[in-house]
Design a protein that fits this description.
Blueprint (H helix, E strand, L loop, with lengths): L1 H15 L16 E2 L11 E3 L1 E2 L3 E2 L1 E5 L2 E8 L4 E5 L3 H7 L7 H20 L4 E9 L2 E9 L4 H4 L6
Parallel strand pairs: 1-8
Antiparallel strand pairs: 2-6, 3-4, 5-6, 6-7, 7-9, 8-9
Length: 156
């Protein structure tokens, strides 16, 4: 009985990870990255404000939205994450059912996007970070250095 329940649970979680939730427009779903595999040097060399334990660790507040960010050394690739993403996952282990996570990640992206566009920085590519059917954040490939425009929004 326990074994069959465990198999059913694992099957659900596996299938839930395949659910494509609503991300921001232009997201490159064909090249999505599992949040579980992202490390500071695994896909991009995030050398600014990155931790292998929590991902993006610079805390920003932009127009009332909190967001965590990290960047490559040249500031042209930015990791954007919902600062409460881990807590949301802990509270709701069935992340595929958690639309709140996607909304928070999308709000984080949109706040960052506004700052970048205001400063003449285009987003060339958006890669989603996903796990258990939820969007946990995004990797943004930019037209030029953009990280310095985000730093003034840093909060403690």
């Amino acid at each position: 009985m326990i074994r069959s329940s465990a198999i059913a649970f694992c099957t659900f979680i596996t299938l839930a990870g395949c659910v494509e939730d609503q991300g921001v427009a232009g997201t490159d779903y064909d090249n999505r990255i599992s949040t579980l595999t992202i490390l500071c040097n695994s896909h991009y060399p995030f050398t600014q404000d990155c931790s292998n334990w929590v991902g993006a660790k610079r805390k920003l507040e932009i127009e009332g939205f909190r967001v965590n960010v990290a960047a490559t050394g040249d500031g042209q690739t930015i990791l954007v994450m919902d600062p409460d993403g881990i807590a949301r996952k802990t509270v709701n282990v069935f992340g595929a059912l958690n639309k709140e996570q996607n909304k928070a990640s999308n709000n984080s992206f949109e706040a960052v996007q506004k700052v970048l566009l205001r400063n003449g920085v285009r987003i060339n590519r958006v890669l989603p970070l996903t796990s258990m059917g939820s969007i946990d954040g995004y990797i943004l490939e930019l037209s030029k250095e953009g990280y310095s425009y985000l730093k003034p929004y840093t909060v403690k």
